Amino acid sequence: MPRILIVDDEQSMREWLRILFQRDGFDVVIAEDGLAARDIVAREYFDVVLTDIRMPRMDGVRLLQAVRELAPDVVVLMMTAHWREDSDEWKQARDTGAEALFEKPFRDVNLVTMQVRQLLESRRLRHENVVLRSTTADQGFAGIIGRSAPMLDVFRMVDTVCRTNSTILITGESGTGKEMVAQAIHTQSLRRERPFVAVNCGAMPEALLESELFGHVRGAFTGAESNKKGLVEVADGGTIFLDEIGEMTPAMQVKLLRVLQERKFRRVGGTEETPANIRVIAATNRDLPKAVAEGKFREDLFYRLNVIPIRLPALRERPGDVPLIAEHFLARLTREMGKPLEGFSAEAMAALESYQWPGNVRELENVVERAVALEQGRRVELATLPEHIQAGRPATPLREIVPAGAPAPPSLPEMGFNLEHHLQEIERQHLERALRQAGGVQTHAAELLGLSFRQFRYLAKKYGLKGAESR
């Protein structure tokens, strides 16, 4: 028996709709306004919420936003006696995820119950299709690999929200695949024919980030020799993905809030306002409610971003997906390196499954890449995996492997830095020095670094080192 919550400030309308839907086989609960309905949704499960738009205390649009946060999978329908399909409140409700609008008084009561049934059936079929696709293909859903219960919940959520224009906040630890989920939402949305633009908000200083997002006019600052479009303008009609939103400075938070509120922006140094026809998807690995409480993140911006929250589980929360993901990376990397590996040994796979993966999917990908590069046999053996994974413990911290009396590593910059990129740069420099010392002969350079020729050739291709002779 499907459950429906009916919300209307008119008692006669509530009671009439209760009788109508009970006759049609629904379990009906009623509420007199949006605040009461919000509290009920927080406690109980519903398949459908049917709400009036104009109500005291909390109107239907604000209730819709609350329901999308509390229970994103619920079908939400709106009704109004002030019918105007082009009204701002209906546009806002539709963008937030309302699936239909009924005019009061109802012209055909049977049509109302029939449409509600159709929407519920459509939702059921979509969810069954999501589960079927994710359990019959190694690629999971929209290129995101996983068959575990936590990931099936994520897939259902993505399938539910992709057809709305609502702002989405994706949270999860580093390396869990937040950008992939954002891309999946975009590729299945009505905006899929328009650009998907990703911006790392933590990788740029404030002045540069403002220019990158909103563009600038000629003469706005030193070096601005011509007008430049910002990424918000480039993403017109599409989706902009704001990664590491928690690292944004307070001044930039104010400017982003204005874009979300007014859907307009102004180029740096300019005076004209330009419409921002974009969908915003933000992501962070920080605890934003805690940052709000500490005064490090604006509360009003948080609520603007957190219209529909999606939390990605850490890899250790879905260990059953580790073999699927590892085999996927193995197949891709063996093609790229030209190594005919047949898979993982039972011992190697058992070690991968028992490891806790603090670096999540990104760490797993790096481990498989290293194993493919080093493995000389027909399959990845346990001995080829890093020692800390063989032992089932996290990697040893740097302070524990630096010999006593060795100089301490340089202090970190105050704003931090990207360790992965730093280490890759060191690796590239060693490859270049070995090549120079070996006179450009890759086989000799590989010997200097203790690598096989195949490993060296793969790394040289990875870093784009040109002009080296193979022998």
Structure description:
This protein is an alpha/beta fold. The chain is built from 20 helices and 14 strands. Strands 2-1-3-4-5 form a five-stranded parallel beta sheet, sandwiched between helices. It has a five-stranded parallel beta sheet with strand order 7-10-13-6-14. β11 and β12 (273-275) form a beta hairpin. The longest helix is centred in the N-terminal third of the chain and has 28 residues, at 109-136. It is globular and about 90 Å long.
Main features:
4 domains; alpha/beta; Rossmann fold; 14 strands; five-stranded parallel sheet; 471 residues; Helicase, Ruva Protein, domain 3
Quick rundown:
This protein has 20 helices and 14 strands.
Helix-strand blueprint:
Layout lengths: L2 E5 L3 H13 L3 E5 L2 H10 L4 E5 L7 H11 L4 E6 L7 H9 L3 E4 L5 H28 L12 H13 L6 E4 L6 H10 L8 E5 L5 H9 E2 L11 E2 L1 H4 L4 E5 L6 H13 L1 E3 L6 E3 L3 E6 L3 H6 L5 H7 L2 E4 L10 H16 L8 H9 L5 H15 L12 H4 L7 H4 L17 H19 L4 H7 L4 H10 L9
Parallel strand pairs: 1-2, 1-3, 3-4, 4-5, 6-13, 6-14, 7-10, 10-13
Antiparallel strand pairs: 8-9, 11-12
Helix pairs in contact: 2-3, 3-4, 5-6, 10-12, 13-15, 18-19, 19-20
Structural class: alpha/beta
Taking strands numbered 1, 2, ... along the chain, how are they ordered across the largest sheet? 2-1-3-4-5
How many angstroms separate the termini?
Answer: 74 Å
Number of domains: 4
Examine the coordinates and then state which fold CATH places here, giving the name of the CATH topology of the largest domain.
Answer: Rossmann fold
- What do we call the CATH homologous superfamily of the largest domain? P-loop containing nucleotide triphosphate hydrolases
Q: Using the alpha-carbon principal axes, give the shape.
A: globular
Beta strand % = 5-15%
Unreliable spans are 134-138, 398-406
Number of helices: 20
Major β-sheet, in short? Answer: 5 strands, parallel
What is the CATH class designation of the largest domain?
Alpha Beta
Radius of gyration: 27 Å
Q: What CATH architecture label of the largest domain applies?
A: 3-Layer(aba) Sandwich
Question: pLDDT average, as an integer?
Answer: 82
Helix content percent band: 40-55%
Counting DSSP E segments of at least 2 residues, the number of strands comes to 14
